[in-house]
Amino acid sequence: INQLNSYESWGWYSYRVLGLITVSVLSLALFVLIEGEVADPLLDIRVFRYWPFINSLLLISVLMVGLFGVLFYIPLFLQQVQGLGAFDAGLTLLPQALVMAALMPVAGRIYDCIGPRWPATIGVAIVAAATYLMHNLTIDTSREQIIWWLMLRAVGLGLAIMPIMTGGISVIPAAQVNAASAFNNIAQRTSAALGLAVLTAIFTTQQAQQLAGRAALLPADTATPHLGGPAVPDWVGAYATYQQTQLQVFVGGLDDLFLIAAGLSALGALGALLLRSGPAPATPASLAVPRQVTTPTAPTNGGPVKDVAVANGAVMGLANPEALPAALTGEMRPGRGEVAGHARLDP
């Protein structure tokens, strides 16, 4: 993240940026190597053996980039371009949160009936379409129009997020669900942070290019408009022209970002087609968490009844597992001085 934020002053090919990239890649490789060797890893990387889980992480990352990118730049647009206050900008974002909150339970019921593929595909496709519509943003776009665009995106996010996450977790063995949940959280936070940093780098570059392009198209002898009365200096008009150009460039850079986010979401819709279709299959016995059943054993030599823990057909507490039926039923083969169901009576 630091190298993405500092590329403008350092340059993409500077030694510092290249060094940070190298250290980051080597540190990640070392972390994976260590976690794969220790007996009790901080993050169990064995969950990446399951492709549906990897696919769900990729899809969640795409959605988080688009979600947090819009949540970051739309308030900036409302405050810096349209002059709204922080409270009014926050109220503009409120309806999309309400839509997502209302659709999450509905998405869960749909997932239980038909699986994650179709709600995720339809939801991500709606996100892509709504984000594409937002690339038509201008300085004069009404607040109501922005709210409708955001609510449409929220419909797609509400339909897609829960089925994608649940579908990925459902293929993980019960013993590794905790590790999979941890990777889910890491993917969300990391993709949001890195995605926003990358979008900001692209946005800054687009702003500089558009401003340079507009300046190149303006003739050098263009007259500066005079604002106000005779006592107002000419530089006030030049400053107003520059400020208006900056706003136009800001909105143009946002439009480019929304196009990029729409393209990523469209790729995510294709990836959602690889998710499982249909209800979740029953958990195999080999992946289920062992259950322990406590069963009393027959009394021996008048002693108290002892408990035997049975887990998946294995008996703990018996020296000879073959004695399980007799111990559970209270019947023992008669021998010297023994009768069925009773211990031998010693004189």
Describe what you observe in this structure:
This protein has a three-stranded antiparallel β-sheet with strand order 1-2-3. With 347 residues, the chain is mainly α. A hairpin with a 2-residue loop joins strand 2 (307-311) and strand 3 (314-316). Mean pLDDT is 77; it is low at 305-347. It contains ten helices and three strands. The longest helix has 41 residues, at 177-217. The termini are far apart. The protein folds into three domains: 1-42; 51-272, Growth Hormone, Chain: A; 291-347, no CATH class.
Fold topology:
Blueprint: H1 2-5, H2 7-10, H3 15-37, H4 51-81, H5 86-114, H6 117-133, H7 143-169, H8 177-217, H9 235-272, E1 292-296, E2 307-311, E3 314-316, H10 324-329
Antiparallel strand pairs: 1-2, 2-3
How would the global form be characterised?
globular
Approximate strand percentage? under 5%
The helix content, as a percent range, equals 55-70%
- Can you tell me the residue ranges where pLDDT is under 50 for at least 5 consecutive residues? 305-347
Oligomerization status of the protein chains: single chain
Q: What name is given to the CATH topology of the largest domain? A: Growth Hormone, Chain: A
| Rg (CA only) | 32 Å
Q: State the strand order across the main sheet.
A: 1-2-3
CATH superfamily of the largest domain: MFS general substrate transporter like domains
CATH class of the largest domain: Mainly Alpha
- For the record, give the distance between the C-alpha atoms at the N and C termini, rounded to a whole number: 83 Å
Overall tally of domains: 3
